[in-house]
Amino acid sequence: GEALEVTREVNCVIDFIHGCEDQLQKLKKQKEKGLLYGIPISIKDHINCKGHVSSGGMVKFLGQMKKEDSIIVQVLKSQGAIPFVKTNIPQTMINYDCSNLIFGQTLNPLNHQKSPGGSSGGEGALIAGGGSILGIGSDVAGSIRLPSSFCGLCGLKPTGDRISPSACSDRIFVLAVTGMLGPMARDVDSLALCMKALLCEEMFWLDPTVPPIPFDEEVRLR
Questions:
Q1: Which of 177, 122, 119, 148 is nearest to 3 (CA)?
Q2: Domains of the chain, with CATH numbers?
Q3: Catalytic residue among 44, 77, 86, 157
C-alpha cells in the first residue's frame, strides 16, 4: 500500500512482483527463519525476477520475460526476504537522472522539482518516500551512491565480485570498472544486515566465482 502511494506521487515503481503472498505463506511453514525473514525488499529494474521483464529502460527488452530469478533474488528469498516491486531506472542506466521512454520520469520525494539521482533512482525515491525499507540497486560509477546522496539515504557499493552479478541484464556495455549490486536503506545497520544475509553459503554455492568470505562484523564496528 505504501509503495503504491509513493509511486503515485513520484513514479518510482515499474512492476509489482506477483507471488508475494504465496511466498510469505511458504516462509511461515519453514523451520529455519532467515536473517531477512518477512522483510519486503524492492529490486532495481535490471535484476532478473522469474516471470518479469528486465527492461533496462529500453523497448527492445519489453517482450522478454525472465525464466528464472537472479542469484541475488534466490539468496534474498532463502534468507526470508520478500522481493515485492521492481523500480525505475534511466534508459541504459548510464545516467545520473532517472527517466526513460517506457516508464517516464521519477521524481525526488523530498522535492518534486529535483531528480532522485541515478541510475538506482527508483530505489532511492521509493525508500526515501517510505514505500520500502530495504532495496537492491547497482553501482558502476555512482549508481547507488548518487541516489542515496540525493534522497538522504545510506547505500553501499560492495567490493568488486563480492556479490554475484549473475542473471542481471546489465551486460549492455563492457565496462572497465566492475559493476556491483548492493543495498540501499535509511540506516547503516540495515545495509550491514543485508550484506550479512547475502554473504552466505548459498551465495557461494550458487556462484563459485564469489570469494567465500562471510561479512565481517568487526570491520563495520571499527
A1: 122
A2: 2-209 (3.90.1300.10)
A3: 44
